[in-house]
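1st attempt posting a full record on here, be nice pls
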Amino acid sequence: MAAKPQKRDDSKKRKHAPAAAVGKSTPKKLKSSTGVPAKVLKKPHNKFSKPGDKKQQPKPHVGNDPVDTKRQRRIQAKELAEARKKKRKKHYTLEQELASLWEKMRTRNIAKEERSRLVSDALKKMKGKIPEIASSHVSSRVLQTCVKHCTQDERNAVFVEIRPHFITLASNTYAVHLVTKMLDTASKEQLAEFISSLHGHVATLLRHMVGSLVVEHAYQLGNAAQKQTLLMELYSPELQLFKDLTSLKEARIVDVISTLKLQKTSVIRHMTSVLQPILEKGILDHSIIHRALVEYLTIADQSSAADVIQQLSSPDLVRMIHTKDGSRIGIFCIKHGTAKDRKKIIKGMKDKVGKIARDKCGTLVLVSILSIVDDTKLLTKVIIRELEGILTELLSDQNGRRPLLQLLHPNSSRHFSPDELAAHGSSVPSLVTKSPSKVNVALDEETEASGLGEADKEDSCDTGAATDTTQSSHLNGGGKKDPLTRRQELLVNSGLAEKLIDACCEMAGELLKSNFGKEVIYEVAMGGADSILHATLDGKLKTLHGAIATLAAHPKVEESDKEHLLEHFHSSRTIRKLILDSPSFASTLYEKALKGKCAIWAQGHSAKVISALLETSSSKVHKLVKKEVQPLVDDGILKLAK
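the predicted structure (as tokens):
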């Protein structure tokens, strides 16, 4: 039987190409089942292998120890980095020495003498090199600490050394902090010298994100004349070139133009070229820029003023309203902006309403928004709801209560100063729309002069009105909605009034004794101007009257630390005013708190409350109290106001 032929094993016997054929064609690389070259694939890691396994042990290293080699490599890399820094930074070694001194001098538990010694050593090392190293991240911090803790003579020496380099240092990210620190500690002469050195560079620095901080800092520290010097440089090229012209006493740009006989168009053109790059870069936080914008809007033509208003009507306006002039700009934007512009501004205030309301200037912008904007749904959603969340905090806050008082009693001279009312009523001259009556009078005069008939006169009026609307479609002198309707929607329909009355009931004693809260509780108890709360919330108001009367009914305690409501300075006068102005409150107070006790309260601050019961104009209250109070007057115990 013939033997079976053996199968050929290709895996063991491989044919190799002859040496001559190697140069002709390159053999293909072997691939695994995944298509990846076999050499690339790694052996699977055996998780059960022990650390002592021979296969896992590293190969013995011939020569130096690998640990020492790694350490040496790190040392060499560090030395190389140090060498590169020394080559790149001229004062690298000095900075390292200063950093070590700074770590010691800035600690809190160091002795005053030791810190003075370290500061002196650091200043000696930096002498003659301060302008060069002030722009360094480390050296700038060291210099700030030295300026803070050094003597006046050492501080003067630093000022003299950096004086020729003020403009350069003011534009550096790190050196700017040294400049502002020097201004904080500068004498009057040094501050005047610094402001003088800024002449010709104010506009350039204000366009710089860092340099503008220095100009603003100097503007805040300067007196009125120095502020005017910095500001006038933005008005005209002549004022920028000639320093003597900036020493005028006139503060308003209109007076400056008339005194120096400048061309108004040239001033507008120059101010536009200065302010436009500042606005485009978003540098809006500085008060000197706010002042310059207000002055610009007083002389700008209609198109230029409208462009600025439109550019500022954005969520970024919130960054401006913390200053007096910035709040005026905010009022201008609300008053003259379109409905879309107002919407942008209001949405930008989301989650910031509480902070704005507590700010002295920002609260005036809120007051303007509540008085002008017609979109009451948006106002309720963004502003009213946030005010409701912090209502108890705002009632006694000097500034936070003002939006509430504006809704209760608009534009009252008791709650707003004449300057604040003037700012609230101010507008941009070139954007003021003529009132309909003036337009009609002008049209009537034109019609009579042209000899038109009645029918032609009506057509002319319609055409004139349409023309006026077209020309000033983007100009708004205020909202179109009836003010009383707007207040009704914001105060009553939104639910704010109900929560306001509830808060006053809970905090009645605290608010009556508060210098600022007494005005709020008085307006609420009176039902607001035009009796806006009486129609729907009359029952709630009676509850508030009863709460005040209950507190006043507490017995008089001689040795008590707390003053009684009727004897306290603020609360006694507020209750007296309520008695004089609200007969229903006077009746409630007498019935619940004063009936049969008037003789007890006939002296001191409380005597004003008792006398008010007879001084009120209500005959009903007179009949109610006359039998008890009149004998006190006849006996001379109680005196009535003349």
